Amino acid sequence: MDDLPSIDPALAYGYPVGPQHHPLGRVRHLLGVAAGDTAIPATRIMLERSARQRAERLKSAVRARRRVGRGTMRALIIGAGGRVGWHDVPAPPAPGPLAALVHPIAVATCDIDRPMGLGRTPFPLPMHFGHECVAEVVEVGERVTTVHPGDRVVVPFQISCGTCGPCRSGLTSNCVDVPPVSMYGFGLAGGHWGGAYSDLLTVPYADGMLVPLPNGVDPAAAASVADNVVDGYRAVAPHLPDLLTRGPSVEVLILSEIGRRPPFSASVVMYAGLIAKALGAGTVHLVDRRPHVRRHAAALGLHPLTPRELRKLPGVPLVVDSTGTSAGIGTAIKHTAPDGTCVSLSSIARSSKLPTALMYGRNVTHHLGRAHARANIPAVLDLMASGALRPERVTTHLGSLDRADTLVRDHLLGEATKTIAVE
Ligand SMILES: [Zn+2]
Ligand SMILES: [Zn+2]
């Protein structure tokens, strides 16, 4: 398809054009990875359960790279200093009995991609980039029964087997058959499973992971369902039904960027807002200090607030905290009404101070953790197939997969909310 560097939404909402952010150089990036606030807890989680399982995974990733005689494929690799480029790498081997090879046809940026690609997170560069995609199945192993070559599927960003205890309970981000925090597109830190900006991707458990795209759902609209849309879903969907039994209208407050932090984009908060509305919430406030994000939120039917305006807002029964900061968690809890729920989607601080006396006095429930992406994907696709949810309204930049190097570089340095590359 033709390349459109900036489609209507970005123009209409006054998104800044051109570079707004700077990548860290190699030395500062590596120093940050080694000495950063989260390096120790991140390493501890990676080696939890079984260091041997992690070592085996890395050995098999290296073995797969070295196997010769099966050709090469394109993969988008990001190095420190903002170097983004297509590289020729060994193509993955034929799939094992439970696996599939898929060909990504629509790839979305994740909100963490900008800080990660700029070298401002604990995830070491270089890495094979991309972890949200819709793909076409190319080849399946002999024991795969639910998907077939030619099927269009959502590929969850987390690796899970579908059969272990946690997977069967819907706790797919803690699958015990793979090392902890196994993910596409996070390089070494995610376990070297490859990235979605590539000609081919290996899905180790095809029946456990892949979810067929419903008829009539556009791959570009569903590209981010692999991660960010389900992240928005799990922030509100489990909590709204109970709150709605207490009264006809439930207000929701979503905290996006309210202070200084690495330059995340704001798609999860917009998806959470759209899903809250689709599931019956009343007014959905979205707080972000960036004017273009507030204008975009208003166009989606959300109520935009500046961080200053937030101070006057009374307590709200459901608060979604996407700040990732210690101060942000505190602010979110302070704005949670009695018997309300506060959901923190991430934490980029090693530890945080919680207003526990206030939480006790108000009976506030606080959730903090990672999404179980695979378990929530079918419900999100159902909402899309029914027309109740249109994630494409959050997309600001769209272009061709062949030019993903330029698209991704523009995304990292600029201020897009959601960049989608399609075949
Ligand atoms: Zn992500
Ligand atoms: Zn599992």
Apparent shape: globular
The CATH class of the largest domain is identified as: Alpha Beta
- For the termini, the CA-CA separation is 7 Å
What is the arithmetic mean of pLDDT?
93
Name the CATH homologous superfamily of the largest domain.
Medium-chain alcohol dehydrogenases, catalytic domain
User: What's the CATH architecture of the largest domain?
Assistant: Alpha-Beta Complex
In total, the number of strands is: 16
Spatial extent as radius of gyration: 21 Å
Beta-strand share of residues: 15-25%
Number of helices: 18
Number of domains: 2
Q: Characterize the largest beta sheet: strand count, sense, and whether it forms a barrel.
A: 7 strands, mixed
CATH fold name of the largest domain, please? Quinone Oxidoreductase, Chain A, domain 1
Helix content: 25-40%
Question: Given the helix and strand composition, which structural class is it?
Answer: alpha/beta
Poorly predicted regions are 1-6
Ligand inventory reads: zinc ion
Describe the overall structure.
This protein is of the alpha/beta class and about 425 residues long. The protein folds into 2 domains: about 10-225 and about 370-420, Medium-chain alcohol dehydrogenases, catalytic domain (Quinone Oxidoreductase, Chain A, domain 1, Alpha-Beta Complex), CATH 3.90.180.10; about 230-370, 3-Layer(aba) Sandwich (Rossmann fold), CATH 3.40.50. About 35% of the residues lie in helices and about 20% in strands. The chain contains 18 helices and 16 strands. Bound molecules: zinc ion (2 copies).
